[in-house]
Amino acid sequence: MKIVIEFYRIRPQDDAHAVVGRETEDAADLDAAIERALALARTLDMPQRPDALTITDAQGRRLYSCTLVNVSDNTGTHRHE
Questions:
Q1: Rounded-to-integer distance, Cα 32 and Cα 30, Å
Q2: Residue range 17-35, pLDDT digits in tens
Q3: Domains in the chain: how many in total?
Q4: Fewer Cβ atoms within 10 A, N terminus or C terminus of the chain?
């Protein structure tokens, strides 16, 4: 399936979201999409480290979102929302 992964920063004062990266990928299923998104969160060259990510399908329907914790380490810890 074709997916779009958006990485963004969240401003705590007003919960504003700013996209810092966007990738279009192919994934076999949602689990593969999540795995790919977490790997990209650790390795993709973005202007800032993302606080969260969202995965949508080709029609723009949200399939998954999470906040990221310790994204720079190898665990890619995340919390599903």
A1: 5
A2: 999 999 999 999 999 999 9
A3: 1
A4: C
- What secondary structure does DSSP assign to 18-39, as a single string? EEEEEEEEE-SSHHHHHHHHHH
Gyration radius from the chain CA atoms: 12
What separation in angstroms does the CA of 23 have from each of 12, 15, 54, 74? 25, 23, 11, 20
Full domain range(s) for residue 9: 2-80
Structure tokens at 67: 């906040």
Tell me the CA distances in angstroms from 58 to 1, 26, 54, 71, 72, one per residue in order: 8, 10, 13, 26, 28
pTM beyond 0.85: the answer is no
Q: Which amino acid is at 62?
A: R
